[in-house]
Structures are given as structure tokens and as C-alpha cells.
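Hi support team,

I've been running sequence recovery on a batch of backbones for a student project. Most finish fine, but this one hangs at about 90% for roughly twenty minutes before it completes. I'm not sure whether the input is malformed or the queue is just slow. I've pasted the C-alpha cells below so you can try to reproduce it. Let me know if you need the job ID as well.

Thanks,
M.K.
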């Protein structure tokens, strides 16, 4: 899946933000200029989390192989964040292609809400010291 430099810059900006900052950005003028009218619902975060839970078993298996194993998600998110975001977006587009939210935003929220940590069985920093 190919993304423009503009989409990459926007995705990496979203990745560096918390939920409230993303919401402010989505409803702000710069997001509208870059993305067009997004029509983001008020419960957008919850809708994305629910989308993750409804992914097909084939998509989940693809995410586990490509993201968890091949990209070593648990150990390389910081260094490989753009590659990981792109691969997640490419995997989920099959199940969520008709979503009203930008696919890159969906991929980022699946990371930020802990869905990918759970799918990849990442140990928390607290667990690592035990």
C-alpha cells in the first residue's frame, strides 16, 4: 500500500500525540486542509477499538505474521513506526476499507489503544522486570 509524503507526515504527527491531542488536531483547520472533510464521529476512538475486535481471523493472522513476527513489533515500534503503521493499514484495509475514518488513523489507534500489544503478546515494561 502506497502513501504520499503528506499522509506519512500526518500519520507520524498523529502517532506522536495522545487521544486528546489527536481529537484537537482532527477538528482543527490543519487536519481539514490536509485530509479534506473527515466527518469524524464523536465516539471515533471507541469505534476504532471495536473495529479491531471485529477483524477477521485471516487479517489477525496476517497482522501477527507481518507485524508481530517479521517487523518484531514488540521490540521495534520506536525505530520502525512508519513501516509498522503502513503494514497494519495494508492488512486491515481488506476488512475496514469502507470505514469512514482514515485507514492510517485506524492503524495508529490500534497501536495506541493496546490492541497490537495484545495481538503480538508484548510484555509490558513492568512484566520485563519480573
Amino acid at each position: 500500500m502506497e502513501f504520499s509524503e503528506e499522509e506519512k507526515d500526518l500519520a507520524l504527527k498523529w502517532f506522536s500525540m495522545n487521544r486528546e491531542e489527536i481529537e484537537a488536531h482532527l477538528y482543527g483547520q490543519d487536519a481539514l486542509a490536509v485530509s479534506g472533510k473527515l466527518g469524524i464521529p464523536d465516539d471515533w476512538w471507541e469505534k476504532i477499538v471495536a473495529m479491531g475486535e471485529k477483524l477477521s481471523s485471516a487479517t489477525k493472522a496476517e497482522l501477527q505474521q507481518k507485524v508481530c513476527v517479521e517487523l518484531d513489533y514488540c521490540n521495534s515500534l520506536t525505530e520502525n513506526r512508519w513501516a509498522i503503521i503502513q503494514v497494519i493499514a495494508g492488512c486491515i484495509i481488506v476488512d475496514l476499507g469502507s470505514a469512514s475514518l482514515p485507514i492510517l488513523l485506524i492503524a495508529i489507534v490500534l497501536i495506541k489503544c493496546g490492541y497490537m500489544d495484545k495481538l503480538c503478546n508484548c510484555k509490558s515494561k513492568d512484566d520485563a522486570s519480573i
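--
Follow-up from support: It reproduced on our side and the slowdown came from queue contention, not your input. The radius of gyration is 14 Å. No action needed from you.
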